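If you are new to this repository, start here. Below is one unmodified record pulled from the training split, so you can see the exact layout before writing a loader.
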Amino acid sequence: MKAAYRRLLIKLSGEQLAGDSGFGISPTEIKRIASELRDVREMGVDVCVVIGGGNVIRGITAAAEGMDRANADYMGMMASVINALALQDALEKEGLVTRVLSALEIQSVAEPYIRRRAERHLEKGRVVVFGGGTGNPYFSTDTAAALRAAEIHADLILMGKNGVDGVYSADPKLDPKAKRYERVRFDEALQKNLRVMDQTALALCRENKTPIVVFDISEPGNLARIAAGEDVGTRVEE
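And here is the target side for that same chain:
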């Protein structure tokens, strides 16, 4: 397939690496995701990934259970670095040269995040995995995705969801009358609090005019179809 985009940023949640178990890292699932990312890279697209850490610990959940919010968020950031290293390993087994850049300085295992360094890796055809969120508590990995996409001038953010094929007016699992959107504007998504990404991240995408596609990443081939310009999932834009 012919690529429709120059540079894509894929946002993966930590839970997506866990597969059906909901915790930890599933070798089968991470291999499948790495294979799909390889297909996109082989189309000539610059590929970068922002990954969460919810399969290890969710900072906001831990905070709700009584842990100090900042400490819980830092633990979540470190969990995302663990996932980034696991994804790097899976990508390299697929034959892709990969670099992990972390917003938290852990120089024994990952390069510190520097924007120009990230751009240089992408120019050399390497897959870049961003770990550690933004490096600051109180900001989600959704916000990290919006921030990194703006910094490296990504053409599109791909928000991978498990078993959800787009943005709905309500939770389709609870409301059979929920409407699925094919296109939605940033303002509408913010006003209606549609579950695209968190409000801070969505506002940042609107400010920088970075379009988003929300799609079902568990459906084989969806990543490559989006990269080729096909209509998959829901597109959120200005």
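Two things worth knowing about this chain: The chain has a mean pLDDT of 92. Residues 69-93 form the longest helix (25 residues).
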